[in-house]
Design brief:
This protein is α+β, with helices and mostly antiparallel strands. It folds into two domains: 72 residues, Outer Surface Protein A, domain 3 (Alpha-Beta Complex); 83 residues, Alpha-Beta Complex (Outer Surface Protein A, domain 3). The chain contains two helices and 13 strands; from the N terminus they run E-E-E-E-E-E-H-E-E-E-E-E-E-H-E. A four-stranded antiparallel sheet has the order 11-12-7-13, with helices on one face. It has a three-stranded antiparallel sheet with strand order 1-6-5, covered by helices on one side. Strand 2 and strand 3 form a beta hairpin.
């Protein structure tokens, strides 16, 4: 039995779940998310607890069991608490700024790089234009957008300049002379 799949999902106050055949819609204080799942997976709700039941112990059903439960849990957490990723901008002259709702990055190119936030995602810049916060209700969209921002100037190993995740460790290399 899948350890992840068999864990029940407690619904917080203010979160409602609507199940229609293969589609599940979750509404909460921060917004609404909906997603369709594999038709073999049965999503059941009773007394504020969401459970996923699989029809058999086949390899495909075991893998779909954990996946379905994890995606449902991410939807419930997203509409109740939300998700956020924090990025750090390191380097002389590197900075991030907000231009309305658009994120503007100056990271060593001859031009600034702009990012428009999709629906239900917000940017914030703090700590003297060195910290970028990407927040939203959909974990996948927040993670993907954070990865795209980081991709504009990934951290390099010699001076550590670039955009990195808040908890990311960049392994540093010695230069040509071997000095640190």
């Amino acid at each position: 039995m899948s350890r992840i799949g068999k864990a029940p999902i407690e619904l917080p106050k203010g979160v409602t779940v609507d199940i229609k055949e293969t589609a599940v819609t979750v509404k909460g204080p921060k917004g609404t998310l909906s997603q369709s799942f594999h038709p073999d997976m049965n999503v059941e709700i009773d007394n504020g607890v969401l459970t996923v039941v699989r029809p058999s112990d086949s390899r495909e059903h075991r893998s779909l069991h954990g996946l379905t439960r994890a995606l449902l849990n991410n939807m419930v957490v997203g509409v109740s608490d939300g998700f956020k990723k924090i990025l750090q901008v390191e380097g002389v002259g590197y900075r991030a700024a907000m231009n309305g709702t658009t994120l503007e990055l100056n990271v060593g190119y001859s031009h600034p790089v702009y990012f428009e936030p999709p629906e239900d995602v917000a940017f914030a810049v703090e700590n003297r234009n060195k910290t970028i916060i990407v927040s939203g209700i959909d974990k996948q969209v927040v993670g993907e957008l954070s990865a795209q921002i980081r991709k504009t100037r990934p951290p390099e190993p010699y001076k550590g300049k670039g955009i990195r995740y808040d908890n990311e460790f960049v392994r540093r290399k010695a230069g040509k002379t071997g000095k640190v």
